Amino acid sequence: MLNTRKATENPFAAIDERLSGLERISLELCKLFHAQTGGSPDAERPLSAQEASEFLGIPKNTLYALTSRREIPFCKRGKQLFFFRKDLLGWLDGGRQRTAAEVRAGAIGSLGTKRGRA
């Protein structure tokens, strides 16, 4: 026999409750996926010039100047320029200034190696 409480319950409220539960599970799975893969599903999607300029925080004209001087990694198909987040982050990291501690550690490391004559 059916429970009388369930028979009088609003079916739309029950559907809404189940959908909310599924949404929580879906969000939790997405968080786990991002934690394990270290990125988002959009990480491999190519960026347009507009999106890349917004991502880097530079004007689009500056981005075009960097591509014409081949100072920034980009792909070109036809007349369209494409950029990948991973490449842009690597480019940004390449311009990173080392801290004083990193410079000292590098200097100490190079002093410790013997270089003989060939």
Brief rundown of the structure:
The protein has 118 residues and is mainly alpha-helical.
Describe this structure in words.
The protein is mostly helical and 118 residues long. The protein has a domain at 45-94: Molybdopterin biosynthesis moea protein, domain 2. It contains 6 helices and 2 strands, in the order H-H-H-H-E-E-H-H. The protein has helices spanning 4-8, 11-37, 49-56, 60-68, 85-94, 100-111; strands at 75-77, 80-82. Strands 1-2 form a two-stranded antiparallel ribbon. Helix 3 crosses helix 4. The longest helix is centred in the first third of the chain and has 27 residues, at 11-37. The model has no long low-confidence stretch (mean pLDDT 83). Residues 47-94 form the Helix-turn-helix domain. It comes from Rufibacter latericius. It holds the Pfam family HTH_17.
Key descriptive features of the protein:
118 residues, mainly alpha, Molybdopterin biosynthesis moea protein, domain 2, two-stranded antiparallel ribbon, 6 helices, 2 strands
Could you give the topology of this structure?
Blueprint: H1 4-8, H2 11-37, H3 49-56, H4 60-68, E1 75-77, E2 80-82, H5 85-94, H6 100-111
Antiparallel strand pairs: 1-2
How helical, in percent, are the residues? 55-70%
Biggest sheet details: 2 strands, antiparallel
Determine and state the CATH class of the domain at 45-94. Alpha Beta
At CATH's second level, what is the architecture of the domain at 45-94? Alpha-Beta Complex
CATH topology of the domain at 45-94: Molybdopterin biosynthesis moea protein, domain 2
Mean of all residue-level pLDDT scores: 83
Compressed to H and E, one letter per element, the order equals HHHHEEHH
Strand content: 5-15%
- The CA-CA distance between the termini, in Å, is 93 Å
Radius of gyration: 27 Å
The general outline is: elongated
Strand order of the largest sheet: 1-2
Q: Count every beta strand, where a strand is a DSSP E run of 2 or more residues.
A: 2
Enumerate how many helices there are, as a single number: 6
Q: Give unreliable regions as ranges.
A: none
Class by SSE composition:
mainly alpha
